[in-house]
Specification:
Layout (H helix, E strand, L loop, with lengths): L1 E6 L7 H11 L3 E5 L10 H6 L2 E6 L7 E6 L4 E4 L13 E6 L2 E6 L10 H23 L3 E6 L23 H12 L3 E2 H5 L8 E2 L5 H4 L2 E2 L2 E5 L1 H4 L2 E7 L13 E6 L16
Parallel strand pairs: 1-2, 7-8
Antiparallel strand pairs: 1-14, 2-4, 3-4, 5-6, 6-7, 8-12, 9-12, 10-11, 13-14
């Protein structure tokens, strides 16, 4: 089973790129973020023509999340984080697919920091931590895959010293992410590629892609039941280099049908 996360940065404007990637990569499950489309403008006909069904929570501007499943129907279980009934932003959706519970978050950016946007991000992360803990307590196989807008360590950012005051790298934001991981989640890409510099985002400015001045902010977190099935993980870097591409690349994992031995699990290099 192959599961991917991809911040498409506008699903309708980049639909040809998304469809090309789906055809080439053939993930079984896809979490999309930053749809930038209201509910009625989601291109469900084109997605179904590509062999996928979907659930989505659309919204104009910067938000919008979706979960796609190849040859299956995602069973929606949630479309907002609990804890704030006044939060109407479309930043979380969740579904059951083939025995796996899939959560798709799009964490707020938080800039400029400090300030109210950072405060909002930290509150949102606290709600995510609380909900993730509830999901773990069920014991079911869970993956939380999305754009977390967090670089967990210095290895995940091309020049750490330039990002110390940014909301994606501030100590309190990274501390929140590490508290999430400490519940028992496995950062799948990092687990498969310890010590390697792997990025999922390159800004449009200052030739960031050409200089490989990237960030790793898109993550797939696995519950213990799924982590034992982890057989591979990586990033489809090539998609970022296409004309009119998103500023993100897709990150993915492959799960074996049965638990694998940690010593025998193959490591697959990021593409």
């Amino acid at each position: 089973m192959k599961i991917a996360t991809f911040n498409v940065n506008g699903i309708n404007g980049r639909l040809p790129i998304l469809l090309r990637w789906l055809a080439e990569s053939q993930p079984d499950v896809v979490c999309l973020q930053e749809l930038k489309a209201p509910q009625e403008k989601f291109p469900i006909a084109a997605i179904r023509d590509a062999g996928y069904d979907a659930i989505w929570h659309g919204q104009k501007s910067w938000n919008g999340v979706a979960i796609l499943a190849r040859g299956a129907r995602p069973i929606e279980t949630r479309r907002a984080l609990p804890g704030d009934p006044h939060d109407v932003s479309s930043r979380y959706i969740e579904a059951a697919i083939a025995g796996v519970l899939v959560g798709c978050p799009y964490v707020p950016n938080g800039n400029p920091a400090p300030g109210p946007k950072l405060d909002l991000k930290l509150r949102w992360l606290e709600r995510l931590i609380a909900h993730a803990g509830d999901l773990l307590s069920t014991g079911v196989p869970v993956v939380i895959a999305g754009d977390f807008n967090v670089m967990p360590t210095e290895l995940d950012v091309y020049k750490p010293e330039r990002w110390v005051d940014d909301a994606l790298f501030r100590p309190e934001v990274r501390a929140a992410f590490h508290r999430l991981i400490a519940q028992g989640w496995v950062d799948a890409v990092r687990a498969q590629h310890p010590g390697e510099r792997i990025y999922t985002f390159w800004d449009y400015f200052r030739n960031a892609w050409g200089r490989d001045a990237g960030l790793r902010i898109d993550h797939l977190l696995l519950s213990p039941a799924l982590a034992r099935r982890l057989a591979g993980a990586g990033v489809d870097r090539a998609i970022r280099g296409l004309p009119k591409a998103s500023d993100h690349a897709s990150a993915w994992i492959e799960l074996a049908d049965h638990p694998t031995s940690p010593r025998s699990s193959p490591r697959r290099r990021a593409k």
